[in-house]
Amino acid sequence: MTNFTGEVRIVGAGLLGTSIGLALTKQGIDVAIASKSPKSVDIAISYGAGRAVREDDSPKLIVVCVPPQLTAQIVAEELIAFPDAIVTDVASVKAGILEELERLAAPTDRYVGSHPMAGRERGGAIAGRADLFVGRPWVITPNSKSSPAGIKVVAELAQALEASVITVSPKDHDRAVALVSHVPQLVSSLLAARLVDANQADVNLAGQGLRDTTRIAASDPELWVQILEANSAEVKRVLESLELDLGNVIDALANVDSEAGIAQLRKALRDGNAGVEKIPGKHGTKHSTYAQIIVMIDDQPGELARLLTEVGEIGINLEELKLEHSPSAQIGLVELYVVPSAESALIADLQERGWRIA
Fold first, then answer.
1. Residue 60 covered by a domain
2. What is the full DSSP assignment across 210-275?
3. CA dist., res. 42 & res. 132, Å (int)
4. What is the 8-class DSSP label of residue 162?
5. What are 155-193's pLDDT values in tens digits?
6. What is the pLDDT of residues 231-251, one digit of tens each?
7. CA dist., res. 34 & res. 17, Å (int)
């Protein structure tokens, strides 16, 4: 937590705007919600994300949470309307927004771009969550004119939301998110699109692998068109590299009777292992540093809650948790991740309490 204080104005009452408002009002911070959609404002206020705007509002910080194609114009308007406020935004592409602000001759000394690496497949105020940003990276992208005071205020906002602050340039941000966010969205969507014309009996065989890789394919297409358009050059570079990799795998599958073909498949899979190892887990540690325990639970209300309660009673901290469940199965598989030193004790205690370990 941080000692963030002062009035905050949030422009846009969608998922991110509502979630920021919920988290801040929970801490007693005065939040005003503005949006061109009165219905969204009503929902956000009803949820407890803030209050309606007033004529005498004097915000310390303005957070613009609107679609990417509108962000620069709204940021410019807010900078003019509130000459004493610092303005940030949460758009997922930064360089183009800064270029547009400079074209509009906006006072960019009071503008500090930012982007929380958090979201959900569902959008809108109704999907808002106060804990959406906890433990997630919040990227701050100052421009050459951003004031130190403004940068500090935006960092304090992220810290108040319990996010992890990372500072990079707008261009470096766009290059990074093309790889870690924008291309994954496209790959997920393209894979899910293969299911449209698939035999339903085949789709019914889906396991957790398909669910994991297509989860984000449920995201809003119109929003993603804007994001991909704004970061098209960086996304294209990553996709071109991926195209080469796919070509190599296709060639290998056409030559599985040869040592070279098998070697190419093995390399692709091992490179994937190496890539996963680079993805940070809790506290920046690698996921593979944790021990995995798979617990089988009955498919009935309250079983997952009972398991987690008993893990808490045992006194062992969970580092990660995943749940796998098939519609046709009568059990669920709960993957618990703990530090290796706690693995044996947790297994023994859970078995003593009657839990089945896979």
1. yes
2. HHHHHGGGGS-HHHHHHHHHHTHHHHHHHHHHHHHHHHHHHHHHTTTTSHHHHHHHHHHHHHHHHH
3. 20
4. T
5. 999 999 999 999 999 999 999 999 999 999 999 999 999
6. 999 999 999 999 999 999 999
7. 10
Q: Is residue 236 part of a domain?
A: no
CATH code for the domain in which residue 305 is found: 3.30.70.260
- Cβ-based neighbours of 19, under 8 Å, separated by 6 or more: 49, 118, 128, 129, 130, 132, 133
Token digits of residue 66 = 């609107």
Give which of 53, 57, 56, 36 is closest to 45, Cα–Cα.
53
The kind and range of the H/E element at 40 are helix 38-47
CA–CA–CA angle 341, 344, 348 (5° rounding)? 145
Phi, psi at 46, each rounded to 5°: -60, -35
Query: What DSSP designation does 178 have?
Result: I
For 182-208, letters b (16+ CB in 10 Å) and e give: bbebbbbbeebeeeeeeeeeeeeeeee
Label residues 251-266 b or e (16+ Cβ within 10 Å = b): ebeeeeeeeebeebbe
- DSSP structural state of residue 144: T
Residue 256 lies in a domain: no
Q: β-strands 291-298, 164-167: how paired?
A: unpaired
CB 152: neighbour CB atoms within 10 A? 12
Return left, alpha or beta for 52; rule: phi > 0 is left, psi -120 to 50 is alpha, else beta: beta
In this prediction, residue 281 carries a pLDDT of: 65
Taking 80 as the threshold, does the pLDDT of residue 334 lie above it?
yes
Where would I find the beta strands (DSSP E) of the chain?
A: 8-11, 31-34, 51-52, 61-64, 86-89, 112-116, 137-142, 164-167, 291-298, 320-325, 331-338, 356-357
The boundaries of the domain holding residue 325 are 287-357
